[in-house]
Each structure stands twice: as C-alpha cells, then as structure tokens.
Design brief:
The structure holds 2 protein chains of 2 kinds.
Chain A (H helix, E strand, L loop, with lengths): L14 E12 L2 E12 L3 E5 L6 H9 L6 E6 L2 E2 L7 E4 L11 H6 L7 H10 L15 H14 L4 E5 L7 H18 L2 E6 L2 H7 L2 E6 L2 E7 L11 H16 L1
Parallel strand pairs in A: 3-8, 3-9, 6-7, 7-8
Antiparallel strand pairs in A: 1-2, 1-4, 4-5, 9-10
Helix pairs in contact in A: 3-4, 4-5, 6-7
Chain B lengths: L1 H27 L11 H13 L2 H33 L1 H15 L7 H8 L3 H25 L3 H9 L4 H38 L5 H10 L3 H29 L4 H4 L2
Helix pairs in contact in B: 2-10, 3-4, 3-6, 3-8, 3-9, 5-6, 6-8, 7-8, 8-9, 8-10, 9-10
The chains are: A alpha/beta, B mainly alpha.
Chain lengths: ~250, ~260
C-alpha cells in the first residue's frame, strides 16, 4: 500500500490535520500564539526551534493531551474534543512497559490485541527476532524501533514525533531516520516531527517550519527527491538557510 | 566454574550449620549446661513428643491462622489506602498526613489499651498484627505508585487505555517491586507482633507454648518454640523471594538473584 505523494501538489491533497488559530497559555504566559497550520495526508511536517519555543506544547495539543486555550484542532473534518484517536505520540523516551516483553508491548496497541499484526509490525522495524526479550536488554535505538512498531500496529494515521531520536548516537540516528522514511513510504502515514536537528528535518520533511516564541517565523517547503543526498548543494543550502533563521531567534 | 557454583549454592548454609555444630559439640562435651541450653537431641525429642500428642500441630495451626488472617486484613487495608492516596489527590490530602502520624506510634505500645478494648481473645491479637503490617504495606505501595514514570501513564492514555487497563497494565505492575518490599518488611513485623501478642495473654499458639514451658523450666520446648519462629519467618520470607523472582523477572536486578 505504498502511496507516492512527493510529486502531487499540496493543494490537491486532503487535509489530515488542521490547526486553526490555536493559542495556549499556562497561567498568564502564552506558549502558543495564534498558530495556523494545515498538514496534508501523508505529509511530513517538521518543526524546529530553540528549547522552550513551544514546539513540544504544540505536539501535546495535537495529541489531545492538552487542550488549547483558544482556537481548535481539526482531525478528519471534526474538531478535536478529547484525545486524538488518529494520532500516536512518540517521545524521546520510548516509554515501553518494562514488565511486558517486546511483543506484548506492541500487542497492547494493536486493535483487538492482534498478536499477528504485532509480530508483523516488529518484523517491519527489523526486530522480529527480539519479540520475546524484555525491553531492558534492548539498546536505545532498538527501544525506539519497538515504540515505532507499537505506533504502527495501532493503525494510527498520524504520528507525532517529539524529538524521538534526540537521545541516540549519531550512527543509530541515521539508521532510524532511514527506517522512518522507509516505513512512511510503505504505509503513507502523516507525521509531525519535532526536532532540534535541522539536518534531520531537511532530510525527512516535506515542509520545515521554524518556531520562535510561540509562533512560526519561517515556512520552507522541501521538494528534493528522496532519499535525499545530504551532501548535495541544494540540501546544504536549505539546511543553512533554516539553521541561520533558528539561530537568529 | 562448577566448583564456584557449588560454593555459591552452599555458602549461605555454612553459618547456620556451623552454629548447629557448635551447639551439638558443646552440649555433648558438657561445655553448655543442659538447664541453660538443652542439647539438639532433646529439642528434637520434645518436638516429636509434642507432635504425637497433637499439642504442637494445634499451637502451630493457631499461630499460623492468626498470622495469615492478620496479614490479609492489615495488608488489604494498607494496600487499598495506599491505592486511594496514590491515585487521588483529594484522598491524599484527606488522610496521608494522619496515616503518617499514626505510623510513628510503636504498635506494641497499644497492648494495654488493646486488652481493655478487646480483652484477651483472638480480636486483640488480630488487631495488633493488623496495626503491625498495615503501615509497611501502605508506605511501600504508596511510594511505588507515586514514583511511577509519568511517561508510561501518558503513553497509556495516548493508546486509549481505560482506568482498569491503566491500573492493571501500568500502575500495579509498576508499583509491584515496592509492594513486595513492603510485604517482606510486613512479614517480619507480623512474626514479631505475633510472638509478643502470644506471650502477653493467651491460651494457645507457639508463643503460649513457649511461655508455658518457661514456667516449668522446660528449656527444650522454649528452644523449640524459638526455632519454630525462625523457621516460619524464613519460610514466609522465602515465599516472597520466590514471588519477587517470578513477578519481577523483567527487572535485571532480580533476574539472577
């Protein structure tokens, strides 16, 4: 069920997720200020910005864990009132249950606890052999792969990544980026990826947004063909352009 | 390799066996006077005689029943209270500071009051054991729930877990290591309380049997009673260790214990 969408113009695609004039305040402090964003189905949108710019809060609002102070989130044509059932949130910490085996961790997310689907998802992320291991014996990268399998087996159509690769070493991070791209290509999920790594954003996203003090200050479409060559001039130019805007803030 | 495993296995037995050996040799040579500490043979003989007469099974059964019932009631109350206070802010505000205050009272100091309230029947002993085991279970369960990784709860919510799934899949297994520590601690207090309760005012149980034997200078029975307490305590503790090994086998620090 590979969906190739890189060539279709964005306007032609249905919207998976819309943020309409969303603000979020904690006490008197506004963390998000009048955010508008439309994410098309199958699109990967990446948000970069300094710590504390509000990007994690935006993701929590998108997942339904936090309610916006004003404005609303539209998912599949409906305004979000509680948890976002179509979306799964992935953190820097894989948040696996240590008292369940790898397979059981994936299973608990699958519809009807479908063991077969869980096993398939594990094989998909290359961990079919580790199904009966305890999460405590896995490496950081492997744990994130299990978390990815868990999100996929839940048949979520939207994946919200909150710096999921932030704690991994550089080599593992490259592997994981390639894995995410492959899974995206195969299953066609919609993704919002928050990262502090501009290169990661340019490598994976269809669109990169720079966030500063609760609103977007730059929107940069990335139309380079996939898989992207990180040494190509266009890639490096885009990366530098976005990075210099992040550093201005 | 094989030899070192054999040593690992038998090393814990060395100290108790050596003590037995000293006791045996000391009694045989007359170095230990029998009126102060009877010979191992005498203790075994009185154990056999008391078993045949039915006295020992009777006292043992009474003590065990008291211990188990007290543990079940006290542990249950402590567990439920900790659950309520661990999960509900309102409940925590309402009762936690009172519980923390009560737990600082040494429960054996209640004996005079307990005798006035309940007399010297089963209720008095049960009450003492309940107050002894309640607090260690409460404190450890409460701590286990409060120190759960909030990310795991959030994960459960994102995956649409209902309240029961949150409890059975995340909260309870997450708190279990602490709960079992509390249980081990509670078992220690359970036997301690039982010994004291059975020596104060009673007509059955191992404590009574021991106290009664003291009146008649039957040191062999006294020693038998003490050894039985040690055995029962070790048995209870060993059971919890087995529970830990099974339920916490996911945890690397328990896997090879």
């Amino acid at each position: 069920m590979s969906i190739l969408i890189a060539d279709t113009p964005q306007t032609a695609r249905r919207s998976a997720l819309s943020i309409v004039d969303v603000s979020k305040a904690f006490g008197k402090k506004f963390v998000l200020q009048g955010i508008d964003l439309d994410v098309a189905q199958g699109e990967i949108v990446s948000i970069v910005g300094r710590s504390g710019c509000g990007k994690s809060t935006l993701l929590r609002v998108l997942s339904g864990l936090e309610m916006p102070s004003s404005g609303h989130i539209v998912v599949g044509g409906k305004s979000l009132t509680g948890l976002n059932r179509a979306a799964r949130l992935m953190f820097q910490d894989a948040a696996l249950l240590p008292w369940r085996t790898v397979l059981q961790n994936v299973e608990l997310a699958a519809p009807n606890r479908d063991r077969h689907a869980a096993r398939q998802a594990l094989t998909h992320v290359g961990l079919g052999e580790r199904a009966n291991d305890w999460p405590t014996v896995l490496s950081g990268g492997q744990r994130q792969r299990v978390a990815l399998a868990r999100a996929l087996s839940s048949r979520a159509t939207i994946l919200l990544f909150d710096e999921p690769l932030g704690a991994l070493d550089a080599l593992t991070r490259l592997d994981m980026q390639a894995l995410i791209e492959r899974l995206w290509d195969e299953t066609g999920f919609t993704a919002v990826l928050i990262t502090h790594d501009v290169e990661e954003a340019v490598a994976l996203a269809d669109r990169v947004l720079v966030m500063e003090a609760g609103h977007f200050v730059l929107e940069q479409p990335i139309t380079l063909p996939r898989p992207r060559d990180r040494t190509a001039r266009e890639f490096v130019d885009l990366r530098e352009r976005i990075l210099s805007r992040v550093l201005q803030s | 390799m094989n030899l070192s495993r054999l040593v690992d296995y038998f090393l814990p037995w060395f100290l108790p066996l050596a003590l037995m050996g000293v006791w045996f040799v000391g009694s045989r040579s007359g170095w230990i006077p029998p009126q102060e500490l009877p010979a191992p043979g005498a203790v075994v003989r009185s154990a056999i005689a008391l078993t045949k007469s039915g006295e020992l099974p009777h006292h043992l059964g009474t003590s065990a029943k008291r211990a188990v019932v007290g543990l079940a009631i006290g542990g249950g109350i402590g567990f439920l209270l900790a659950l309520a206070n661990g999960l509900s802010k309102w409940s925590r505000n309402f009762s936690d500071s009172s519980v923390q205050m009560l737990r600082t009272i040494p429960h054996l100091a209640l004996i005079p009051l307990v005798i006035i309230w309940f007399g010297i029947g089963e209720e008095a002993k049960r009450f003492l054991i309940v107050t002894g085991v309640l607090f260690p279970i409460y404190i450890n369960t409460f701590h286990g729930i409060r120190s759960l990784d909030p990310k795991l709860i959030e994960m459960g919510r994102v995956y649409g877990f209902g309240p029961w799934a949150l409890f059975s899949q995340i909260i309870f297994p997450g708190a279990l290591p602490s709960i079992l520590v509390g249980l081990r601690y509670a078992l220690g207090l359970m036997w301690l309380t039982l010994i004291v309760a059975e020596t104060v005012a009673t007509d059955s149980g191992i404590g009574y049997m021991t106290m009664n034997a003291r009146e008649f200078l039957q040191t062999d029975v006294v020693v038998l009673g003490i050894l039985l307490y040690a055995l029962l305590g070790k048995l209870a503790d060993g059971t919890v260790v087995l529970l830990e090994r099974w339920f916490l086998r996911w945890n690397p620090s328990y896997r090879h214990a």
